[in-house]
Give the backbone structure.
Amino acid sequence: MEPLTDRQIRSSFVNCTKGEASRLRLPLDFAALPWEDLDFLGWVDPGAPLR
């Protein structure tokens, strides 16, 4: 998987407002993700666990 930036991930959320996307909590280890070993990126946002 190609590495993504915080901004790229937030802009990919098309079914929410810009405010919701900006409040989205990325994974705690986002900066250290092993992008080359990933097939997809998924996580549960503790601030919105049902999203």
